[in-house]
## 1
Amino acid sequence: MSLVDLKKRPAGKGRKRLVFAAVLLLVIVCGAVGFSVCLRWKENSRIEKKRRIAQIRVQVLNGTKESGLAQKMADDLRRYGFDVVDIANAENDSFPETVVVDRADNSTGNAVYVAEALKCINIIPQLESRSYLEVTVIIGKDYNRPQKKGFLGRF
């Protein structure tokens, strides 16, 4: 039986089922490969983020009158994997809100990682070329307050 003979053969139910099964198998294989690539990409992204977070040196300053907040926040940041290198009081103890200050990155990429961990929305760039720090966190009076929940229970 040659290839020409197969083409001349009328398409029956068996041939259509075979084509359908082949297409279905191809779709399943492509889906499995795509899913595997997606999982691999997501895992690599998570590892890269964790590696980058470990390289961010953070200073935590207490900008409130409540003692011990800087140590508590430093412990929280260390649990996330940040390198907290300095804990102190801020010049002023009446900061109304917590602020994340980016010291080394124009795109505020380092500060965004810290702000995400703290669920803080206040990020300001204040570059210091001579500083060994990447990020400074100044704790404000809003730290430790229960956060408001939205309509669906999300922030």
## 2
Amino acid sequence: MLLVIDVGNTNIVFAVHDGQDWLGTWRVATTANRTSDEYAATLIVLMERQNIPVHKISRAIIGTVVPPVLYQLLTLCRVWFSVDPIVASSSLDWGFEIQTDNPQEVGVDRLLNGMAAHQLYGGPLVVVDLGTATTFDIIDKDGNYCGGVISPGLTLSLEALHSAAARLPRIGFGRPQSVIGKETIGAMKSGIYWGYIGLIEGIIERIRKEHSVSEITVIGTGGLARLLAEGTSIFKEINAELTLEGLRLLANRNSSGNKK
């Protein structure tokens, strides 16, 4: 069985795949000062509740955009599961070209999303990841990573609006009933929600023109993707598991990460 660990800025996702299906997926908060023993105490209990024996884990892969937690997760895999995990990086065999000036600077989550999306949907395509940052990643018809766009995430934008304007309250995110707000909170929600819809549609249109394609598939992922998809028809599909699937595909292309 393959243990997959996807480290994001907000959550760490642990998942186990048996070669046919995902047997379990669990999320814990990303905390830099958590020890490997604390990760083990949580993960092993969750696995046992779904009848997944620890000794059945024979391979592991880690993808992280938070370097401070990597050492403890490497120790978790080596001490508690007796596997030396693969760590996703641009130096591995991805099966496609990373066509950027500095491939090592590209976040591995973006490469993983592109890899999985091309496998599932074909290309050319754009993956829009609505997480801490909102990223657009462009994949050509052959699966090569062509580059991307990075803009502030929705949560960051809401916080910035509140922090920079003393009379504007801190608000949650949601789809407003109308575009024109009749009071302050309604106007703020409208500006954020429809502003991001405009940002997504506008950037996709510019990518189409710059990439010289009339049609390009758009796949959404990230925690807020389904809510934003209610306001636009630009997404072909929302897939919350793209990064996990990318890690599984990358592990299968690379031979390390096996039982010691």
## 3
Amino acid sequence: MEEFEASASAQKTKSIYISTVFGLAMVLLMVGLLGLILVHANNLSRYVKENIVLNIFVDESAHEPDVLELQKQLESNVMVKQTQYVTKELAAMHLKKDLGEDFVKFLGYNPLSGSLDVYLKADYANNASIEKFKASLLKNPLVKEVKYQQSLVDDMNNNITSISLVILAFAAIFVVVSVALINNTIRLAIYSQRFLIKSMQLVGATKTFIRKPFIIYGIWHGLLGGLIAIIILMGTLYFAQVQIPDLVVLQNYTEFGLIFLGVIGLGVFISGFSTYLAVNRFLRLKIYQLYR
């Protein structure tokens, strides 16, 4: 009979631990998904900003070696990500393709100018930086005109700022809720062990001695929950990449690694700390308070 009760108790404890691990895994999975959304949103913002183009039209009297030298100078600028030299002939070919007509043959000459297409780094893709950059460019005698879509840059930055604030606010709320859920899950698991904790205390075990195995189990559960969450996150990333191949331009495996480490770290820390608090609570309670 005693063996049966001991076996039933062990089975019940095992079930509680399994439920705790999967509960932790589901909460950590949500945290990880939110982290992946934030990373993709940030990379999408950077991708959009770095595809804003400045058209620098060079003077028609400029020689090609001088234009190429100007291109080299631009590429060494800290604001510039990359440049592309568009000759008059290449510009005419692109326009003919867009119009569907040979306007050079109709006019008898090519009225287009050569230009340098400049793509800025994301940190400098704002009107203040671009205007300052434009002013410095116009001092160069080779530069005839600099054009870009000012209103587009304004709208883009305003929209990105608004969306980022909403996502960050949502992320902050979600992290608080996640921590509360994990803490509650751990407390329920420790609650089932309250009589064991008090029994150990009554036979003279020190608080440190009582806490130690529970905290070790708590850390272990956090680690397992984190690993399960990461496996599901990796599967989700693979599925998303298969369904949307263009997502690859927004993916950064270093950032993914940091998110996975964060998920495990969060699981281990919160699980271990919540276990410590929960065990301490039952150590402070009187025997009659355990039945409430």
## 4
Amino acid sequence: MRSAQWIPVVLLGAAIAASSIPAHADDSQAVIQLYQQITGLQQEIRELRGQNQEITHELDDLRKRQRELYMNTDQRLQALEAAVSGGATAASSGSAANGGTGSPSAASPSMPSASTGQPAASSTSTPAAVAVASGGNGLDAYQQAFNLLKNSHYHEAVDAFKSFIKQYPQSPYVPNAAYWMGEALYVEQHFNQALAQFRLVVNQYPQSNKVAASMLKIGYSQYELKQWPSARKTLQNVVNNYPGTSAARLAADRLSRMQREGH
């Protein structure tokens, strides 16, 4: 780079020296033109570098907005599923209180019951009930991990969910923690790991209310990995096995998109 900066100076010196010799006037003029061309090219390079920086910044912003949009969509899905099951008033009210946007920062983590892994009856549980619930099943640790996820600290959230599952392997919140780990990995674009995590939820916790959403995310992950036939098959299974749900609608939307894209 430094040597490149010296080139115009050297050429200019050569041009000046050459211009002092009448016999080589034409050559001097050619050198000056060459110097001007190089100077112009350097200016263009500087402009291109500036444009490249602007594009990189815009791309980072787009990625951030994409992640936020994905999380908002997922929160709406969770709230709708909870409302349909009649088991998670918290998720529904959280979305409504947020103007229907389903912002992750406003949504509450879905709390499974102790016996089935389904969402708790309501977030309106009394403080005493919550205190009892958090006594030995790791509720506090689960909430802390989920808060990291809501605040977009995805890497930290994955570690926190891992720690929670290791510390409370019998907790009824484990299926949800496993699912949200997959979500964090997906948002971080670790699609292979996310795919494995969502499959784990489906295979190890078939009674969890996260199965349909996990199936959908398996299809999404396969899509991101360009596993087109597998993605189509998975998404079609979601449409067939969970008719009338948000997961089925989103799967159908992705299938339509794949068709438009020629996948």
